[in-house]
């Protein structure tokens, strides 16, 4: 939405980077779980969170890759506080083990960032619906926890960087990983978003999703269906 560097109400745009939207923010004392943290948007989110003092738990399928990223970040940011835990989101057994291990660790949980490089079509719609329904449940329970969804934008790949025409066009319409990770860092850490829940963000600003994504009944159906799939047999 806020392309070509045009700033929205937040003061940021599609061109803003994760470091820029968190400039001056002190995340010391916060603990965050970041999924998909061994590459792409998750890796950059982990790096910027660590830069701002957040204790980051990298939830990754490939533990070795996660440890390599951790070492690289600590080399850049010696004060970084990062731990790596195994999590395969395609396996409910792995999810339950991760949750059990995390509960046993005694660590608090202030931020949960479900990060992936791409979110299109039905998966994108499902994420928006789920976050909205979760926000409604949390509000009904009077819990001081917020849930929001976002779209990181289209990210330029290494392959496109070596294609002259695509790279030139992409400079205006595609984002770097640093820019792509900005919205989730903004939503997670910026004081402008404190207390905001059930919203959809694009380019570091609140956006208006499709009418289907705002369908309350569809969100309830998805919620109930998800519960039926994840209940222990």
Written overview of the protein:
The model has no long low-confidence stretch (mean pLDDT 91). It is globular, with a radius of gyration of 18 Å. The strands form 2 sheets. Strands 3-2-1-4 form a 4-stranded parallel beta sheet, with helices on one face. It has a 3-stranded mixed beta sheet with strand order 5-6-7. The protein is 45% helix and 12% strand. It is built from 10 helices and 7 strands. With 233 residues, the chain is of the alpha/beta class. The longest helix has 20 residues.
Using brief descriptors, characterize the structure shown.
233 residues, alpha/beta, Rossmann fold, 2 domains, four-stranded parallel sheet, three-stranded mixed sheet, 10 helices, 12% strand, SDR_fam, Short-chain dehydrogenase/reductase, NAD(P)-bd_dom_sf
Number of domains: 2
Give the strand tally. 7
The Cα radius of gyration reads 18 Å
Could you spell the SSE succession in H and E letters? HEHEHEHEHEHHHHEEH
> Can you summarize the main beta sheet?
4 strands, parallel
Roughly what is the average pLDDT, rounded to an integer? 91
Helical fraction: 40-55%
Give the CATH H-level superfamily of the largest domain. NAD(P)-binding Rossmann-like Domain
Shape: globular
- Approximate strand percentage: 5-15%
Q: State the CATH architecture of the largest domain.
A: 3-Layer(aba) Sandwich
- The CATH class of the largest domain turns out to be Alpha Beta
InterPro entries: NAD(P)-bd_dom_sf, SDR_fam, TIC32
Protein name: Short-chain dehydrogenase/reductase
How are the SSEs placed, and which strands pair?
Blueprint: H1 18-21, E1 31-35, H2 40-51, E2 55-60, H3 63-76, E3 81-86, H4 92-105, E4 111-113, H5 121-140, E5 149-151, H6 158-161, H7 164-173, H8 177-180, H9 182-189, E6 200-202, E7 205-207, H10 216-230
Parallel strand pairs: 1-2, 1-4, 2-3, 5-6
Antiparallel strand pairs: 6-7
Helix pairs in contact: 5-10
Organism: Trema orientale (Charcoal tree)
InterPro entries: NAD(P)-bd_dom_sf, SDR_fam, TIC32
Protein name: Short-chain dehydrogenase/reductase
């Amino acid at each position: 939405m806020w392309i070509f560097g045009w700033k929205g109400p937040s003061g940021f745009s599609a061109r803003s980077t994760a470091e820029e939207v968190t400039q001056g923010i002190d995340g010391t004392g916060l603990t965050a779980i970041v999924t998909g943290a061994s590459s792409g948007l998750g890796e950059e989110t982990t790096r910027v969170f660590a830069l701002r003092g957040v204790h980051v738990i990298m939830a990754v399928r490939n533990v070795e890759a996660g440890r390599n990223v951790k070492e690289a970040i600590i080399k850049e940011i010696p004060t970084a506080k990062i731990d790596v835990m195994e999590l395969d989101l395609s396996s409910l057994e792995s999810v339950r083990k991760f949750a059990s291990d995390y509960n046993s660790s005694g660590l608090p949980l202030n931020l949960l960032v479900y990060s992936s490089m791409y979110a299109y079509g039905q998966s994108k719609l499902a994420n928006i619906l789920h976050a909205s329904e979760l926000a409604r449940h949390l509000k009904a329970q009077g819990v001081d926890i917020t849930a929001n969804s976002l779209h990181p934008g289209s990210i330029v790949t290494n392959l496109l960087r070596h294609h002259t025409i695509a790279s030139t066009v992409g400079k205006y319409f595609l984002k770097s990983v640093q820019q792509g990770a900005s919205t989730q860092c903004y939503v997670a850490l910026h004081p402008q978003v404190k207390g905001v829940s059930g919203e959809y963000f694009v380019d570091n600003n609140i956006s208006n999703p499709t009418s289907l994504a705002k369908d309350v009944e569809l969100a309830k159906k998805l919620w109930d269906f998800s519960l039926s799939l994840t209940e222990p047999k």
